[in-house]
Design goal:
Elements: H1 11-18, H2 24-36, H3 38-64, H4 67-86, H5 90-115
Helix pairs in contact: 1-3
Length: 116
Amino acid sequence: MVNLPKASCNDAILDRYLNKDLTPEEKLFLKAHLDHCQRCRCKLEVMITIARNFRDIVQSALNEEDFAGLEKEICTAAVQQVRIKKGPPRIITFLKVILAISIIAGVLLLCATLQL
């Protein structure tokens, strides 16, 4: 809680007001202060206008950005990094081992058949 004399002006409390970070008691104090302080009312109006304009600019920029395309690029890059780190998929490694075992078994079977 901020304990301020009623006559004092405080930019920090105005900022906290904009961030909705005031206690109910502080809100009452600020309202009473703004009722008689033209300087703080004007300052708060300017702060609200700046915050609103900034929010509008950011929202406009977000609306113009193609996040679906960006998300696809990021996912593709991530999958490629995983493949590079892990090497070939496990199924391919498994199939290579099965192929090698099959070839060896076929050669052994052929050798056993020819010796009979």
